[in-house]
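Much of our argument rests on the idea that a fold can be written as discrete symbols. Part of our work consisted of pairing the sequence of a single chain with a tokenised description of its backbone. No coordinates are needed to read the tokens, only the vocabulary itself. The record that follows shows the chain in one-letter code together with its fold in token form.
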Amino acid sequence: MALSKIQAESMNLADTYAFSGTVSGTQGLVLLQTVTASNDTTVTVGSSSLFTSTYKVYQIHCLNVHPTNNTVEFRCRMSKGGSVITASEYEYARHQVTFNSTSGVVRGSNSDGIVNLAESVGNADRRHVSGVHTLYNPAGTTFRKLVNFYSASVDVNANFANNVGVYAHEGTEGAIDGMQFFFAGGNIESGIFKLYGVA
């Protein structure tokens, strides 16, 4: 006779089990997209078919993003209606801490055409930026789109920097259909970008 329920104490987790049927109630991160950069000017993550009402929270993981140019800012922009927003309509605030900054440095703007995520990223071997961006209800059309992020980067002098911040588009409340990442100069030589829905 097939079992429909089991007690946790009755299972030996060292054994091998075969399950059939549907597993429900799963939680966590659901991988939706992977983009691998290879000497690209920009990388766009997401689309109108990926940012939907299926999830209210999404995460973008930026892994080992390495620039071709030296001492460059890592930046992003949003896309709405299929077009990247380049107007000075972004507001962001970021707290950066390095080993030689006692209390850190606050950076930001309330009317910029880009979001500055990290600066002075080096292009020597092993220098890069990695981080996580959390988007809240990007497919919604009632509220402005808020994103918070944290990242770690290695600058031109091989110093480590910790960045924590928030950004938003101050314009319309329209749905986001993409996030564009790029460096201030040169290309993204390499890096992996993963989009997850948060279940």
Observations:
- The chain has a mean pLDDT of 90.
